[in-house]
Design brief:
Alpha-Beta Plaits, 291 residues, 2 domains, three-stranded mixed beta sheet, mainly alpha
């Protein structure tokens, strides 16, 4: 599992190196802000891809003396760092685009290589985004999912730049700066989504979808009279569940333990990489508490 995650993350790093270099060279040669903004975007993609590579290498390490809940949150932290990098990208793109539009210095040199590097970028991003997404879903990896979402937006931003180049080819040079602003808007939207998701996990926000699944599972057990104190947190690909069950007071300790085992197995069969802690108490205790 770790080997496959590292392999796809490493491929993403190599792709980012190639795209950053090619966009930077063509952007400097043509003077296109749209391509230069894409080069900076790809440069930060490279940093993000490297962070992702190291995070997936560490995240699947088992729990140890200093990390009782494992190392999964390194993936969420990686996704949060990607958000910061994306916001930095936006700041530079917006600044340069506004300066060029205000000053009127929007002339660029468009050549065949401008189209080659952008079209090539779109093709590469389509393939690596699809590859990352498949592996992210397979292993429930937020870091790889963040990378996949990141690169899927690169497809749209490159398409916007391509449209700007086409317009510039017909003399509408200001379209390049407008295209760069379009890239910035796309990046801002992605930054918000990535940042919110990663921050929610880092702050242990309860995953409502997972909670609903667990509540439905608990409702299928006739032996369970009530349940309370259901708590769920995630860390990378791992989910941790804690719940208190109330059962018939006539049940023996062994019977109550068997019910807990059944509940744990059922939850783990529905939620991948899930660690469940179930505490059972007799119904009479629950009733006394409520009085």
């Amino acid at each position: 599992m770790v080997k496959e995650k590292k392999s796809v993350a490493l491929i993403s790093v190599f792709a980012a190196v190639f795209l950053t270099g090619s966009k930077l060279i063509i952007g400097i040669v043509t003077g296109s802000l749209g391509i230069l903004s894409e080069a900076l975007h790809s440069g930060l993609d490279l940093v993000a891809a490297v962070i992702t590579y190291f995070s997936v290498s560490v995240s699947d390490k088992p729990a140890d003396r200093n990390h009782h809940f494992g190392h999964g949150k390194i993936e969420n932290f990686s996704a949060f760092l990607e958000t910061i990098l994306l916001l930095i990208t936006c700041g530079w793109i917006i600044y340069e685009a506004v300066i060029r539009l205000v000053s009127g210095n929007t002339h660029i040199e468009v050549n065949v290589w401008s189209y080659v590097v952008i079209v090539g970028s779109i093709i590469i991003d389509i393939n690596r985004s699809r590859m990352l997404s498949e592996v992210a879903k397979k292993f429930n990896s937020q870091a790889l999912e963040a990378d996949a979402l990141h690169f899927s937006t690169d497809i749209w931003s490159s398409s916007v730049v391509l449209l700007g180049l086409i317009c510039a080819n017909f003399g509408f040079y200001y379209a390049d700066s407008i295209a760069a602003l379009g890239v910035a808007v796309i990046v801002l939207v992605v930054s918000y989504k990535l940042g919110k998701r990663s921050l929610d996990v880092l702050l242990d926000k309860a995953p409502l979808e997972t909670i609903n699944k667990i509540e439905l599972i608990l409702g299928t057990f006739s032996e369970i009279k009530h349940f309370h104190n259901l708590k769920v947190r995630t860390a990378g690909a791992d989910t941790f569940v804690k719940v208190v069950l109330t059962v018939d007071e006539q049940f023996s300790l062994i019977q109550a333990h068997k019910i807990c085992d059944k509940v744990e197995k059922e939850i783990c069969s529905v939620i991948d990489r899930c660690e469940v802690f179930v505490h059972a108490e007799p119904q009479v205790i629950s009733d006394n508490k409520s009085e």
